[in-house]
Design brief:
Elements (H helix, E strand, L loop, with lengths): L8 E5 L3 H20 L7 E5 L2 H10 L4 E4 L1 H11 L2 E6 L6 E2 L1 E6 L14 E4 L5 H13 L4 E3 L12 E5 L3 H10 L4 E5 H5 L3 H4 L2 E6 L3 E2 L1 E5 L5 H13 L4 H9 L6 E2 L7 H6 L3 H11 L1
Parallel strand pairs: 1-2, 1-3, 7-9, 7-10, 8-9
Antiparallel strand pairs: 3-13, 4-13, 4-14, 5-12, 6-10, 6-11
């Protein structure tokens, strides 16, 4: 290894470090070797337990690159003074949205019908399973109140919401009648078996946002950021780069962030305090 060679440090939030290393290491190695022009240099992976830790690590430079969907990426970048620089087409998807679904055989046909009822969100830090549908319903002038269970009192002027922990739980709660509606990512909904999908109707769809974003540490020099961006943007143009991207959660490419897709950040910012308080509570 060259004495001047330094690893590119990638960060991920997870409670399963083994899986993270398996997925991230080839990608980290590729970036490190490209930027150092040294095939013997290996990248480094840091696994954080929560967003607060990841924010500290990005701010200090312990982590240089962090990938996530828009909502957690926004929270972490705001807390660390980090910069969102690229869009990542994770799973071959450039952008996605949320759908709010209800049982076809029930009386809930539109969002106004949810007043006095309960909706299931996935997790408090999920973009498609919480942030997007939460913002959508608020923009409709509806009053949302978090509940710890579906048995808590809900007035006719509010919509109660509870966190299910997963899309599968949300669907089961909806089918069993525990909740009147559920929110999930459009891609996940489309991937459900046809006979399962037919049980539900979509009562609302949110706007689309980038599937995944790249957040970069404020400690990196401008020249290093430029070099990393160039490497990432050109990865899909070579066979070897495509192979590494495929191993990295079936990423198709990295792309410049469309200006119209950054508008969601302006909408998140006024709500960051109430929403982030929920995120910290559940972390």
């Amino acid at each position: 290894m060259k004495t001047s060679s330094k690893p590119v440090i990638l960060g991920e939030i997870s409670d399963d470090p083994t899986e993270v290393f398996e997925i991230f290491q080839p990608f980290a190695d590729h970036l490190t070797q490209k930027i150092n022009e040294d095939k013997n240099t290996l990248g480094k992976i840091e696994v954080a337990p929560n967003m607060e830790t990841m924010s500290k690590w990005l701010k200090s430079g312990k982590v240089e690159l962090y990938f996530d969907s828009p909502y957690p990426a926004f929270l972490v970048s705001e807390a660390s003074d980090a910069q969102v620089i690229l869009s990542r087409w994770k799973g071959g998807v450039s952008s996605y949205k949320s759908v709010i679904i209800a049982l076809r055989k029930q009386e809930v046909k539109k969002t106004n019908n949810l007043q006095g009822k309960t909706i299931a969100f996935e997790e408090n830090f999920s973009t498609s399973g919480y942030m997007l549908p939460y913002l959508y319903l608020k923009e409709q002038g509806l009053n949302l109140t978090e509940k710890t269970s579906n048995t808590q009192f809900i007035s006719d002027s509010e919509i109660g919401y509870i966190f299910s922990g997963s899309d599968n739980n949300s669907l089961q709660w909806l089918i069993s009648g525990r909740v009147a509606a559920a929110a999930m990512g459009s891609v996940d909904f489309e991937q459900l078996p046809e006979e399962t999908r037919q049980q539900f109707i979509i009562i609302a769809e949110t706007k689309s946002v980038p599937r995944h974003l790249l957040v970069i540490s404020p400690t990196l020099s401008e020249s290093k950021v430029i070099r990393l961006k160039k490497i990432l943007l050109e990865m899909n143009e070579s066979e070897s780069g495509q192979k590494i991207l495929e191993q990295f959660e079936k990423t198709t490419k990295f792309a410049e962030l469309p200006e119209d897709q950054t508008e969601i950040f302006k909408e998140i910012r006024p709500l960051i305090n109430p929403i982030s308080e929920q995120a910290n509570k559940h972390n």
